[in-house]
């Protein structure tokens, strides 16, 4: 079960931000949470754009009964720094933000503000792009697994979100295709071992689905290829939300932002919920003490 007390929603009043606000409002209503709507006024030169007349985000009558809306205006030379500083000062549990802003591919573009927020935020982040996905349409959640304790934590968050959205969770593991010349004279080719690798991985994935997902378990998939490309394509085919950790088996490399997670957040066709690998958990009664332990 998830627990959210404070949600931060940075906005530039763009259409993408308005779409992301629907997700923030939904989550706020589910947890009777505070929803902090933060607009940062930066110098025009810093955003290379003309100021936009604010169009305040408004809650539906249904959501307004459960959400405490707090609207904040801040000024600063760095939008990113203001957002991060506010998140830390307010002990925010979740940041919800759009990935494209007033100029589409620049203002809140991943690779700029939103990417850095996902990378540096002290809490979980839900990024929402220019997609048709709404809270009401989330039926399939994709959780990539690399058999690290950190991805195990992300699967548990996916299960809690599945309960919230009444959705199923599909698990995906990507076997990285590698090639090495037979300089050691072992006489083994990748094609010789891949069937056994897939079979063993299928068994391990089924065990995770049974132990962690229960009735929320969807399908399990094992694919061979490049991590990010496979995750993005599988999600495009059949996912309304991706849930994944910010670090993987090698800590700062495999699922590290700047690597797999960063590319998924940049290019996914659906919202992406990134779970911090370190720090407080959003799961009631959970501890991160064993988050670094691998499952295998």
Structure notes:
The chain has 2 domains: 6-128, HUPs (Rossmann fold, 3-Layer(aba) Sandwich); 137-275, HUPs (Rossmann fold), CATH 3.40.50.620. The protein contains 9 helices and 10 strands. The protein is globular and about 60 Å long. The protein has helices at 15-31, 44-47, 61-64, 79-89, 113-120, 149-165, 190-213, 227-238, 260-267; strands at 6-10, 34-41, 68-75, 94-98, 124-128, 140-144, 168-176, 217-225, 241-245, 272-275. Strands 3-2-1-4-5-10-9-6-7-8 form a 10-stranded mixed β-sheet, sandwiched between helices. Helix content is 35%, strand content 21%.
Features:
296 residues, globular, 35% helix, disordered C terminus, Rossmann fold, alpha/beta, 9 helices, ten-stranded mixed beta sheet
In total, the number of strands is: 10
SSE order: EHEHHEHEHEEHEHEHEHE
Main sheet strand line-up? 3-2-1-4-5-10-9-6-7-8
Sketch the major β-sheet. 10 strands, mixed
Name the CATH homologous superfamily of the largest domain: HUPs
Coarse morphology: globular
Total number of helical segments? 9
Residue share in helix = 25-40%
Give the termini separation. 25 Å
CATH fold-type name of the largest domain: Rossmann fold
Whole-number mean pLDDT:
81
The secondary-structure class comes to alpha/beta
Radius of gyration: 20 Å
Supply the CATH class of the largest domain.
Answer: Alpha Beta
pLDDT < 50 stretches: 45-50, 103-111, 248-258, 288-296
